[in-house]
Amino acid sequence: MKKLKIYIDTSAIGYLDEQGSPKEMLEMHQLWDLVKQGVYEVVISPVVIRELMVNKNIEKRDKLLEYLKQIEYTIVEITDEVHNIAKSVITNGILTEKSYDDCLHIGCAISNNCDVMVSFNFKHLVNVHTIRGVRAISMLQGYANLDIVQAVALIQKGGEV
Q1: What is the Cα–Cα distance from 76 to 108, expressed in whole angstroms?
Q2: What domains lie within the chain, and their CATH numbers?
Q3: Would you list the DSSP string of the chain?
Q4: pTM
Q5: How do residues 92-133 score in pLDDT, each as one tens digit?
């Protein structure tokens, strides 16, 4: 069977060290363990790296970057195709220009044929409005479906399509 290809956004990585949310932090660590075991194929983007790097809490930033060193992942490029998908997310009223980085996360995941995007960004990504909008864009533009989920959705039964 084919491994699920997952895009992990910055918010999800941030929950590896989110002391105020112990349940979600545990779920991310459980997912991280599966990733370290090679259960999932992981994709991130330069947006993830940039967002991690601008964290003003140096200790947390360094800790999160150390977590990234523990896993294998592919950094995908921000291409014209990614920008076109991101703009489509905005023109279709799913997100606004203010959330352009979130649109880029979506564009990277869709254009790189990810099965799932893992996020804890409930305001912009993990909500019915965005999930349905992303599905519509994917379908109308001829891409495969992208599920946007929390880590818990991937730790229940690991990895295969």
Answers
A1: 7
A2: 5-155 (3.40.50.1010)
A3: -PBPEEEE-HHHHHGGG-TT-HHHHHHHHHHHHHHHTT-SEEEE-HHHHHHHHT-S-HHHHHHHHHHHHTS--EEPP--HHHHHHHHHHHHTTSS-GGGHHHHHHHHHHHHTT-SEEE---TTTTSSHHHHHHHHHHHHHTTPPP-EEE-THHHHSS-SB-
A4: 0.93
A5: 999 999 999 999 999 999 999 999 999 998 788 888 999 999
